[in-house]
Amino acid sequence: MKISARNQIAGTITQITKGATTSHVGIDIGGGTIITASITNEAVAELKLKVGEPATAIIKASDVMVGV
What is the pTM of this model? Predict the structure, then answer.
């Protein structure tokens, strides 16, 4: 599949924590860095995500906010 987003970071799924409607998916991108995505449980099932499998974090955002 081709997509327009240029911020694509390959890694390995380290965890999938399912909630009532949303799952948190951890992707190890190397160097001790984990990116966590919140996606629907339905998306996890449709993508057949499994711990240990390769995955790509695709970041498409017009703003990034940081607070302390």
Answer: 0.85
